Fold:
Amino acid sequence: MATKRPAKAPLDCHERALRLLAVRPRSRRELESRLRHAGFEAGEVSSELDRLEEVGLIDDGAFAREVADHHLKVRGSGRRAVVGALASKGVSRETIEETLAGLEGDESERALEVAMDRARRLTSLRPEVAYGRLVSFLARRGYDGGTSREAARVALALDGRHA
Structure:
C-alpha cells in the first residue's frame, strides 16, 4: 500500500519572489505581474517588492543595463530592439531613456559589424538578393532603414550601386 506524502505548504510571497529571481533577474513590474498572477494580494506584493528593492535584489536600472548590454554585444541588436526588449520586460520609459543615454558606441558601427559578419554567409547569392536579405536581417535586429541599407551596401562592397 502506497503511503501518501504530506502536501507541501504553498510558498509565501517572499519565497516565491526569491525563486523567480533565482532563475534570472527581473524588473519590478515583471516580478509584480508574476506574483499577482500567482494569486498574491496587491498590498502584499507591493510591500514585498519594496523590501526586495531596499536590499538590492530588485534594481530596474541595473536590470536594464544588463539586458541592453546583452542585446548590443551578444545579439548585435540596434537601439529599437533594445527599447522593445526592455519595454516587454516592464522597464519604465524613464529607465529605458537613461539606459540608452549611457550606451557606448555608434549605432552605424554596430550595424556594420553585424552586417560584415552576416555577409560572409551570403557570398553564394546574387548581390541584389544578398543585399535584400542583409537589409531585412538588420531591420529585424532593430536597426533603422537607412542604417540597415548603408551597412549592407558597405558589407557587400556594392560601391554605391543600389541592389
In short: The mean pLDDT is 90. The longest helix spans residues 60-74. The chain is about 65% helix and 0% strand.
